[in-house]
């Protein structure tokens, strides 16, 4: 019988003025710890424009993709009850593709192919947010709902500018409710094509799963390290690629409108005047450096603990999923975040061991709370006044995590 191995990790909150938030990627053979670095819970009544801008900064749409939308300055978004709603609207607008170019400047794509003049007519408007901050490595997540109307193109991704580096954590077609398109682009052209069954082809494509993105909330997350990218849906790894991407990148969430002839075709039915909402509950960015820890936003609404849908990956192609051996030790993802005057314990993953448990003990090692880990969100039933010198202990996969619960004060 193999000797039981215990991994014991102790995290101490060094200051009462900093509310610590933490995520563990808890695998069968390892624990990776990420600390809250940045993000938005969208608790305010207006978008924080010191954190986000409304468009790419270099273009209001992407001509070579034949996109039909014009990204407006906040007219296609609404913040309500702790959600950011992005939507597309069928309406004509005559505006500049690139704000800082004159109206009559020629726009060229590809091999200097003329694409029209800068000021042009758009048939749709749409909503986007792009971070002012650039990120390099970490764990990125979004909790969302998609519109139920077909033909729209919501996305969550990292963009590295020119020379182009890009990580597409998700690109969706709203009619394909059980598929997620994953992608990544290296500035080294040869790294973007991998050997397929016969010929080389561009890396990226749809992964399919059992479930329905139209029902309930889902969480897409991605781990970007110096050596690889991992893509997750509700805590299950759905794609994996070994690649070294090192450019700093801005974070984007948007809803685009494809044409009937371009990528991600077809577009929406023209009888639809306005799409449903690409509803974003939160966006969170985590990294491994505790020194860069930012305070977590104050939670005002109870939607942060909404039920999370359960899904199961169906497609595990070598091209997008990698070798089966790359995944044998994968486990669960556990996050601890402030909620009202207590904490929320979020557990994601396809197979949570029945024996996986957590408990909270006081300084005398007396158990205050004890229970099993369960999928989704669990409110720790103690109030802020009791959060003094209490320790959270998680046991899973023959590993033990010790974490001192920080007080909000």
Describe this structure in words.
The protein is globular. Strands 2, 3, 6, 7, 13, 20, 21, 22, 24, 26, 27 and 30 form a twelve-stranded antiparallel sheet that branches. The protein starts with 7 loop residues before the first strand and ends with a strand. The longest helix is centred in the last third of the chain and has 4 residues, at 318-321. Helices cover 1% and strands 47% of the residues. The chain has two domains: 1-30 and 345-409; 52-287, Jelly Rolls, CATH 2.60.120.200. With 409 residues, it is mainly β.
Defining traits:
32 strands; eight-stranded antiparallel beta sheet; twelve-stranded antiparallel beta sheet; 409 residues; globular; mainly beta; Jelly Rolls
Tell me the layout of helices and strands.
Elements (H helix, E strand, L loop, with lengths): L7 E4 L10 E5 L4 E10 L11 E2 L15 E3 L5 E4 L2 E4 L2 E8 L9 E4 L3 E5 L1 E8 L1 E8 L2 E8 L7 E7 L6 E6 L7 E7 L7 E3 L4 E3 L1 E7 L7 E7 L3 E6 L2 E7 L6 E8 L21 E10 L24 E2 L4 H4 L10 E8 L2 E7 L8 E5 L5 E6 L3 E5 L9 E7 L2 E7 L4
Parallel strand pairs: 1-32, 5-11
Antiparallel strand pairs: 2-3, 2-26, 3-24, 4-12, 6-7, 7-24, 8-11, 9-10, 12-23, 13-20, 13-24, 14-15, 14-23, 15-16, 16-19, 17-18, 19-25, 20-21, 21-22, 26-27, 27-30, 28-29, 28-31, 31-32
């Amino acid at each position: 019988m193999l000797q039981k191995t215990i991994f014991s990790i102790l995290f101490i909150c060094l200051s009462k003025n900093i509310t610590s938030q933490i995520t563990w990627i808890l695998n069968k053979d390892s624990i990776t710890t990420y600390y809250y670095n940045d993000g938005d819970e969208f608790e305010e009544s207006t978008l924080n424009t010191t954190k986000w801008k409304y468009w790419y900064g270099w273009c209001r749409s992407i001509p070579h993709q034949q996109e039909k939308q014009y990204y407006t300055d906040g007219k296609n978004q609404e913040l309500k009850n702790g959600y950011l709603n992005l939507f597309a609207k069928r309406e004509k607008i005559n505006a500049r593709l690139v704000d800082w170019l004159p109206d009559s400047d020629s726009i060229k794509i590809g091999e200097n192919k003329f694409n029209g003049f800068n000021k042009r007519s758009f048939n749709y408007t749409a909503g986007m947010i792009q971070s002012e901050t650039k990120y390099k490595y970490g764990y990125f997540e979004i909790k969302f709902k998609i519109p139920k109307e077909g033909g729209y193109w919501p996305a969550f991704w990292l963009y590295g500018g020119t020379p182009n580096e890009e990580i597409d954590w998700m690109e969706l077609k709203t009619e394909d409710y059980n598929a997620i398109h994953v992608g990544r682009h290296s500035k080294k052209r040869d790294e973007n094509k991998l050997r397929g069954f016969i010929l080389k082809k561009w890396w990226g494509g749809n992964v399919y799963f059992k479930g329905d993105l139209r029902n309930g909330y889902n969480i897409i997350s991605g781990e970007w390290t110096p050596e690889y990218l991992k893509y997750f849906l509700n805590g299950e790894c759905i794609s994996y690629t070994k690649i070294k991407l090192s450019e700093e990148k801005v974070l984007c969430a948007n809803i685009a409108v494809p044409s009937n002839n371009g990528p991600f075709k077809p577009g929406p039915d023209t009888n639809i005047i306005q799409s449903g909402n690409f509803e974003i509950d939160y966006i969170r960015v985590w990294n491994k450096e505790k020194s860069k820890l930012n305070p977590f936003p104050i939670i005002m609404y109870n939607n942060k603990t909404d039920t999370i849908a359960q899904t199961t990956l169906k497609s595990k192609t070598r091209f997008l999923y990698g070798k089966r051996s790359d995944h044998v030790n994968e486990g669960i993802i556990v996050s601890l975040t402030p909620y009202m005057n207590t904490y929320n314990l979020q557990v994601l993953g396809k197979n949570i061991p029945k024996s996986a448990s957590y408990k909270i003990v006081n300084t005398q090692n007396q158990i205050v709370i004890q229970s099993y880990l369960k999928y989704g969100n669990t409110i720790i039933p103690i109030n802020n006044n009791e959060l003094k010198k209490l320790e959270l202990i998680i046991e899973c996969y023959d590993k033990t995590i010790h974490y001192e619960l920080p007080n909000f004060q």
